[in-house]
Amino acid sequence: MANKKIKKNVLLIFSKDIMYNPVIYKLAADFRIVFNVLEAKIYPKQEGRLILQLEGTEEQLDEGIKYLKDQKVKVEILAEKIKRDNESCVHCGACLAVCRSDALQYDNETKMIVFHSEHCIACGLCEMVCPVKAVKTASIDMEI
Amino acid sequence: MKDVHVKKSIEEINKKIKQGKAVVVTAEEMVDIVKENGVKGAFKKVDVVTTATFGVMCSSGAFINFGHTKPKIKAYKVWLNDVEAYAGIAAVDCYIGAAQVQEEDPLNKVHPGRFKYGGGHVIEDLIAGRQVKLKAKGYGTDCYPLREYEAVITIHDLRDAFLYNPRNAYQNYNCAVNLSNKTIYTYMGVLRPNLGNATYSTSGQLSPLLNDPYYWTIGVGTKIFLGGAVGVVTWRGTQHDPDVLRGENGIVKEGGGTLAVTGDMKEMSPRYIRGASILGYGCSLMVGLGIPIPIINEEMAYFTGQSDADIYCPVVDYGIDYPNAINRTLGEVSYQELRSGKIKIMGKEIPTAPLSSYYMAREIAQKLKDWIVKNKFTLGIPQIPLPTVEFKGIKYDN
Ligand code: SF4
Ligand code: SF4
Asked: Quick one: B154 and B233 in the same domain?
């Protein structure tokens, strides 16, 4: 159980005083976390934002994330940012048309639009298009 | 309709329903029944096939009579939750259109607009029994002196509330793509540039008019499931056009027929009628609609047995062609391909997304089936047929 690998998408926000510190490589070197860069935005001399997919055991991820926080990186777990109200969702598929990750998928058996929050990058597009407002986003401060 | 041979009448089927002997299946189940028993066998076996669709249907709205006020008002302007309803009908009658947007909405000033609240939402709120603010303006007459009226009401305070949709249940519809180089926000959803994705919007093999392609059994007076209640087909819908491209199986390969439908909102459920906000486009209404199809002859067994693999729709570019009224299709695709999640257009493989809910359509077809099996619903006998085209015959083996 403890060795089971899981995936977690995280948003890392580097404020300008730490943005040029070499911390990311430590995830692999010290914590043996495999990471994938899903999105990166650098605002020179202001802020850096990275969306990473982390893969490792629960313990490795917890320790890696703790390390990042100790280095003053702001860490947001993206799976927790987007919530779908399953009572309200009518499984129309409008959200599927905009999702760029694998978080939303059409199940051709049940005909439901399935939401896999662990793949979500919290872009918020599904919230914008949902015709019945079944998707709620917890606010991530997107402004800098 | 001279080419239609009725081998089993609706009256006979209704008798069976009342005796609890009718065999009722959904259009989805019928596909397998025809595969296993052949057309002839399926005709003998099945009496009614239930069909359904659930999705955004523009050209929907409601007639509302809010009852006479004291003193009386001849309302010439009416708003429900600040959404204007058309009041030029009578003193306290109005029509609220699903696409009407709330006053002060920024529309598309910041593109794409969100269109948070409109006529469709008012209709949902009323059906859900929620409170709605009614505002009316009169100009004062000797018989209707009141000039202004405001009240918070629920559907129970209204004298009448009838859903009255001039065009629903489009027989078939386009699959939408975008050939332009920017993202577009359409009534067919968000379409990414350069053939980035495709959307489609009918329930295919479950969809009412795809199962009765020549409108032999669906006509004015056909009883239907509308928004959770019993409704009726009141006329052909606007833009009804039987004279479109058809496959060898008789099924239309483009828009085709439409229906005008009516039902009592006081009996409806907010599970099957939902207000809709379509990003960058406007407000609308999601309608859940189901129609029972009597299997009056072998041909009807054949049609209802057709599956998503046998039903095609045209692929249309909404980036350049559609807005400029250029009539061109980029090819045709089957609903089976669309439902697989990927289609190939102009040599490119692109992801697909539905816009109408097959999941809900399935639920409605099942519910309608239960109603009939439990003798809570009998079939309406069409009084006036919908305009159709000549039937040239179909081929089937057994
Ligand atoms: S767009 Fe909204 S209602 Fe439609 S499937 Fe997605 S979450 Fe559900
Ligand atoms: S926020 Fe919505 S659209 Fe964006 S990745 Fe997550 S599920 Fe997909």
From this structure: no
Q: Whose CA is nearest to atom 2 of ligand 1?
A: A130
Q: Name the residue range of residue B131's domain.
A: 63-161
Q: How many domains does chain B have?
A: 2
User: Within this chain, do residues A71 and A86 fall inside the same structural domain, yes or no?
Assistant: no
For the question of residue B94 being annotated catalytic, the response is no
Closest Cα to atom 8 of ligand 1: A89
Is residue B336 located within the same domain as residue B366? Answer: yes
Q: What is the ipTM of this complex?
A: 0.95
CA distances from B16 to B223, B265, B298 (A): 17, 30, 18
Residues forming a β-bridge with B236: B259
Same-domain status, B277 and B174: yes
**In a mutagenesis test of the B interface, which of A85, A90, A133 is the best target, namely the one with the most B β-carbons within 10 Å?**
A90
Pocket of ligand 2 (CB under 6 A): A 82, 98-99, 101, 103-104, 120-126
Q: With contact defined as beta carbons under 8 Å apart, do B168 and B261 qualify? A: yes
- The total of structural domains in chain A comes to 2
Pick from A67, A73, A56: nearest CA to A16: A73
The phi, psi pair for B255, rounded to 5°, reads -25, -75
Same domain for A98 and A68: no
Judgement on whether residues A36 and A94 belong to the same structural domain of the protein? no
Taking contacts as CB-CB distances below 8 angstroms, the residues of chain B near A129 are: 189-190, 279
| B390 in a structural domain | no
Q: Check residue B381 and report its DSSP letter.
A: P
Write down which residue in B111, B131, B161 finishes a domain: B161
- How would you classify the pairing of strands B229-236 and B223-226? antiparallel
Q: Which residue type occupies B379?
A: L
| pTM, to two decimals | 0.95
Q: Write out chain B's pLDDT in tens, 398 residues.
A: 557 899 999 999 999 999 999 999 999 999 999 999 999 999 999 999 999 999 999 999 999 999 999 999 999 999 999 999 999 999 999 999 999 999 999 999 999 999 999 999 999 999 999 999 999 999 999 999 999 999 999 999 999 999 999 999 999 999 999 999 999 999 999 999 999 999 999 999 999 999 999 999 999 999 999 999 999 999 999 999 999 999 999 999 999 999 999 999 999 999 999 999 999 999 999 999 999 999 999 999 999 999 999 999 999 999 999 999 999 999 999 999 999 999 999 999 999 999 999 999 999 999 999 999 999 999 999 999 999 999 999 999 87
A61 shares its domain with A73: yes
Cβ neighbour number for residue B265 with a 10 Å cutoff: 22
Catalytic residue among B58, B94, B143, B175: B143
Tell me: do A88 and A30 sit in the same domain.
Answer: no
B359 chain-A contacts, CB cut-off 8 A: 90-91, 110-112
A87 touches chain B (CB under 8 A): no
